[in-house]
């Protein structure tokens, strides 16, 4: 984008206002400032607007724009007059502008804080949510320029535009005068406006993924004549999966299909030289050509109106700087046409729904239909996961292998799966999290309805995969993991653990507690299971040994008894091979049938099976089961049965009625479509997951227990307290003064007095410490404060290191103080180096540390731990995202491993944890209210039996970001 040449513009071109957005129907558009170079585009745009829309905009017939109009609407000072345009394919589809006005409605400049706003949307693009998206962006621009209120005049008949304003969620005032509706609304975000914005974001981004996963037609670009090759393989996979839509093969070497009544085809699929030659709409294009030919293919897809792309081609971000630039240009080009991309370097997409049956991937076999959604950023891991789930008898609803995930990411899939009725559990392999702040927000919302299991690769190497462009985070991996768990994410370390947990969550109800019953025909295996439960924080009951002579009927009886026991929340069954008295060997199918029958008698409790060298048991437990939805109830003579839809697995409190092995005969159809249909129609049955090792079963169950506990706590999240003594406006004014006086765009660390003053406005009192540059000054300070006192150094290398001897406590008089001062200077050096201070003594207690930081990727994070080298070495620090509720503050201090020291460990007196929780909430409020506060450190905070004392504090300020998480919806920039 060129900087506008108009000399009247008072500001440089505001490139940070540019944004790619997803519209209501899932397509994309580009929002950017209107410049003087847009005159021809504006005229062309206006010519395509209907007379009715023009009348609504200008309140009179206005067939064409005059030269004066064009100049006015393309020349802005970017402060008092601003215009934005939404573009697709480089052409305008909508515009919005504001003009700053005074109380009389006349043109004005700052400090006037009101502006008049007006929209115009091309008729062909009305109903796509363009105006509501533009309103979010123009409101953010106005707030940045000091405008606090918008006014709009609308004709009563223009109901669509009135709805745009009234549905936005802002506080409004409405009046009617001279036949015109006047709307006035404040631009400060409200809870309702944020809720509206995020609901629209979810629908739009979810819809954009739905368009990629449910196409009515697919064109594979790069299909060779000879068998083999990526394009030909994908085309074959699409055919064999029984894709229900239209298929096309594209290669520039083909003869044009249909010429003279005949043309090229590949395996019965019509073949064309170009996407533009296809005579019917194309919803999805799979691109499998060399990287240097991709731009031409993308341009042809854009001109043809293709809705989305799956780019399998390599040679992008993973190949170095040149490839990264090629990747950025690919995203820009696709978005300019309103298309979204999976890839590049993608593995592909799969949708097992019988309405679609899509396998546009490199996986040669489509997985069975199921209730698990799978997302992976790695093709190799995708292959491993698909294979592992297939071996364990699990089915999928949808799969996305995103490769470099230059556009569509895990966040988009979370938006889609949140409302997808075919998905109950989501599994994600992530090598990077492009927007951790948004991911945790979406994960928290998703996890309240459906389990989300995540494995994060490259978490210790510190190396970002070369194909991924992500915002850097300063947070260590352990902190990111803690934040994900706080958001309800089930964080596991390996893909094997992810599959294990996914199988349990997809087929079993959530446990109501940590009490685990253990039974089986091996005493040793039962003891191993018991030990594993204890190690994973579960509460196992005494194992029940059925002896090696137990029959399947004995297993059924024992399992039924364990499930009916009120002191048991879940059961793990151990099974090893056995030989009956008549010499008969183990029959896995019989055992599986008996276990399912017993489990069905108490469907509210989960069951897992551990089998050792018992070949066929896992297959038998899975053979007659499916993770697909219940089959439709056939209509009766009086009409269709009104059976309720099954609840997602995460909500399930009872399980479907079990079937025997003979109830589910294997499909015999050889036609792919027939096989898929048969699989989809199979009724969902009670699926018992089987594991080859006790530790794996216990780990999966442990994750389910912790997730269920999080769900119960998330149902009552607590509240963010409002404290009467907080001076929010005074703090804001003081922060503005301090930043203005410093002038450094990188920010500043406040002087102690300024830091203490700012904290005091939020009810956080820091104990006074007086400088002691010499012994006489120390004595004078002690007399001012009052004995007993503490003498401590504040030099950076000794600060907060009492273990090094830089602190002297309980100095009762002048003699002790002078002796301590001499000792410090003798041991550590001159006073100028030590920077000693004198501080009054406080009641003894537990020394703690409270910190808050603003991470550029994750947002505001509140941390808590005990002070001291031991806690630092062990990494015993807990974290929560800001703002912190009262319940989260309580859980924060209880989640560190050394928390027992706060609650009376080994006979010591418990300390005042309610006071500590209040301090955490006050720090959270300070950081949340003022984004300029980018760092707070309170160390140490001494928590006594009654009350606490903050002995030292530091605060760092920096100019706030131009856009934050409360800003308008945007796609990641490239």
Mean pLDDT: 86
Whole-number radius of gyration?
33 Å
How many separate helices? Answer: 28
Number of strands: 39
Q: Overall 3D geometry?
A: flat
Could you describe the 3D structure shown?
Helix 6 packs across helix 11, helix 12 runs parallel beside helix 13 (about 475-485) and helix 17 (about 590-600) packs across helix 18 (about 615-625). This protein is about 35% helix and about 20% strand. With about 950 residues, the chain is an alpha/beta fold. A hairpin with a 4-residue loop joins strand 37 (about 935-945) and strand 38. The longest helix has 23 residues, at about 190-215.
Outline:
With 974 residues, the protein is of the alpha/beta class.
What descriptors fit this protein?
974 residues; alpha/beta; 8-stranded mixed β-sheet; 7-stranded mixed β-sheet; 28 helices; 39 strands; 21% strand
Write the layout of secondary structure elements.
Layout: E1 19-22, E2 28-33, H1 39-47, H2 51-58, H3 67-74, E3 81-88, E4 91-101, E5 114-121, H4 130-144, E6 149-154, H5 159-166, E7 172-177, E8 180-186, H6 191-213, E9 217-221, H7 230-240, E10 246-250, E11 265-266, E12 269-272, E13 284-287, H8 294-304, E14 308-311, H9 321-336, E15 340-342, E16 348-351, E17 358-361, E18 369-376, H10 379-391, E19 396-401, H11 410-419, E20 425-430, H12 436-447, E21 452-456, H13 477-486, E22 490-492, H14 495-507, E23 515-520, H15 523-535, E24 539-540, E25 544-545, H16 552-564, E26 570-575, H17 588-600, E27 607-611, H18 617-623, H19 672-681, E28 690-691, H20 694-714, H21 728-742, E29 748-749, H22 752-760, E30 769-771, H23 775-785, E31 789-792, E32 807-811, H24 814-828, H25 831-834, E33 837-840, E34 846-855, E35 859-866, H26 869-874, E36 877-881, H27 886-894, H28 913-929, E37 933-943, E38 948-950, E39 953-957
Helix pairs in contact: 6-11, 8-9, 10-14, 11-12, 12-13, 14-20, 15-20, 16-17, 17-18, 23-24, 27-28
């Amino acid at each position: 984008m060129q900087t506008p040449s108009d000399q009247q513009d008072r500001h440089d071109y505001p490139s940070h206002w540019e944004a790619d957005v997803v519209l209501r129907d899932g397509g994309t558009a580009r929002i950017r400032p209107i410049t003087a170079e847009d005159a021809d585009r504006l005229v062309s745009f206006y010519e395509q607007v209907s007379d009715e829309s023009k009348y609504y905009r200008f309140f009179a017939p206005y067939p064409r724009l005059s030269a004066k109009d064009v100049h006015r609407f393309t020349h802005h000072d970017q402060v008092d007059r601003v215009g934005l345009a939404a573009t697709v394919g480089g052409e305008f589809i909508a515009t919005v502008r504001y003009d700053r006005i005074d109380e009389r409605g006349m043109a004005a400049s700052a400090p006037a804080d009101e502006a008049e706003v007006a929209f115009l949307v091309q008729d062909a693009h009305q109903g796509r949510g363009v105006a509501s998206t533009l309103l979010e962006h123009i409101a953010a621009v106005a707030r940045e320029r000091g405008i606090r209120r918008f006014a709009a005049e609308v004709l009563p008949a223009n109901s669509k535009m009135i709805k745009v304003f009234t549905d936005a969620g802002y506080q409004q005032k409405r009046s009617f005068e001279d036949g015109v509706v006047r709307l006035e609304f404040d631009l400060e975000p409200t809870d309702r406006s944020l809720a509206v914005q995020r609901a629209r974001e979810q629908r739009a981004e979810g819809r954009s993924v739905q368009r990629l996963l449910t196409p009515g037609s697919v064109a594979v670009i790069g299909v060779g004549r000879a068998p083999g090759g990526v394009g030909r393989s994908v085309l074959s996979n699409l055919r064999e999966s029984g894709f229900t839509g239209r298929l096309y093969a594209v290669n520039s070497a083909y003869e044009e299909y249909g010429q003279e009544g005949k043309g090229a085809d590949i395996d019965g699929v019509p073949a064309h030289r170009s996407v533009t030659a296809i005579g019917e709409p194309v919803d999805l294009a799979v691109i499998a050509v060399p990287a240097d030919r991709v731009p031409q293919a993308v341009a042809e897809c854009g001109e043809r109106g293709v809705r989305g792309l799956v780019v399998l081609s390599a040679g992008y971000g993973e190949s170095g700087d040149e490839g990264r630039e090629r990747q950025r240009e690919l995203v820009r080009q696709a978005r300019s046409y309103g298309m979204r991309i999976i890839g590049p370097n993608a593995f592909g997409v799969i949708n097992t729904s019988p309405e679609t049956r899509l396998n546009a991937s490199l996986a040669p076999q489509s997985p069975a239909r199921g209730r698990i959604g799978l997302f992976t950023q790695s093709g190799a891991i995708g292959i491993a996961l698909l294979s592992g789930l297939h071996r364990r008898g699990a089915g999928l609803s949808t799969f996305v292998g995103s490769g470099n995930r230059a556009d569509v990411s895990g966040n988009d899939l979370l938006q889609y799966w949140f409302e997808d009725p075919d998905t109950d559990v989501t599994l994600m392999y992530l090598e990077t999290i492009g927007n951790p702040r948004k991911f945790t927000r979406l994960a928290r919302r998703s996890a309240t309805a459906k389990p989300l299991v995540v494995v994060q690769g490259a978490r210790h190497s510190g190396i970002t995969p070369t194909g991924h462009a992500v915002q850097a985070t300063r947070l260590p991996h352990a902190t990111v993991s803690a934040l994900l768990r706080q958001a309800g994410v089930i964080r596991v370390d390996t893909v094997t653990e992810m599959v294990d947990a996914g199988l349990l969550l997809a087929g079993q109800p959530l446990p109501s507690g940590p009490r685990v019953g253990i039974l089986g025909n091996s005493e040793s295996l039962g003891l191993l299971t018991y030990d594993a439960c204890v190690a994973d924080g579960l509460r196992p009951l005494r194992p029940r040994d059925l002896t090696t002579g137990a029959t399947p009927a004995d297993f059924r009886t024992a399992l039924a008894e364990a499930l009916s026991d009120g002191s048991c929340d879940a059961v793990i069954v151990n099974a090893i091979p056995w030989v009956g008295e008549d010499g008969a060997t183990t029959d896995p199918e019989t055992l599986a049938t008996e276990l399912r029958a017993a489990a069905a008698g108490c469907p509210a409790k989960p069951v897992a099976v551990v089998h050792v060298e018992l070949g066929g048991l896992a297959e038998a437990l899975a053979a007659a089961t499916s993770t697909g939805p219940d089959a439709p109830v056939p209509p009766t003579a009086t009409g269709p049965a009104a059976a309720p839809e099954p609840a997602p697995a995460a909500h399930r409190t009872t399980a479907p009625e079990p079937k025997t092995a003979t109830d589910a005969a294997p499909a015999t159809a050889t036609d792919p479509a027939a096989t898929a249909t048969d699989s989809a129609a199979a009724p969902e049955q009670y699926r018992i997951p089987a594991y080859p090792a006790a530790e794996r079963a216990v780990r999966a169950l442990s994750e389910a227990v912790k997730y269920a506990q999080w769900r119960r706590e998330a149902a009552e999240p607590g509240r963010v307290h409002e404290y009467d003594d907080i001076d929010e406006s005074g703090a804001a004014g003081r922060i503005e003064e301090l930043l203005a006086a410093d002038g450094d765009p990188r920010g500043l660390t406040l002087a102690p007095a300024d830091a203490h003053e700012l904290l005091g406005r939020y009810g956080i009192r820091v104990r006074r410490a007086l400088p002691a540059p010499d012994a006489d000054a120390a004595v004078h300070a002690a007399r001012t404060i009052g004995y007993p006192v503490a003498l401590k150094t504040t030099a950076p290398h000794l600060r907060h290191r009492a273990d090094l001897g830089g602190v002297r406590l309980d100095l009762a008089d002048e003699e002790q103080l002078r002796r301590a001062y001499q000792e410090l200077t003798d041991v550590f050096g001159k006073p100028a180096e030590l920077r000693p201070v004198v501080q009054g003594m406080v009641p003894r207690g537990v020394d703690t540390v409270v910190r808050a930081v603003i991470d550029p990727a994750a947002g505001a994070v509140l941390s808590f731990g005990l002070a001291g080298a031991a806690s630092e070495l062990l990494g015993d620090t807990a974290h929560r995202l800001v703002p912190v509720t009262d319940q989260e503050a309580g859980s924060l201090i209880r989640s560190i491993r050394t928390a027992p020291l706060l609650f009376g460990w080994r006979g010591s007196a418990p300390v005042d944890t309610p006071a500590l929780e209040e301090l955490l909430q006050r720090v959270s409020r300070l950081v949340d209210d003022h984004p300029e506060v980018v760092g707070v450190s309170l160390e140490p905070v001494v928590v006594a039996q009654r009350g606490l004392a903050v002995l030292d504090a530091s605060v760092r300020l920096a100019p706030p970001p131009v856009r934050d998480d409360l800003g308008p919806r945007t796609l990641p920039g490239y």
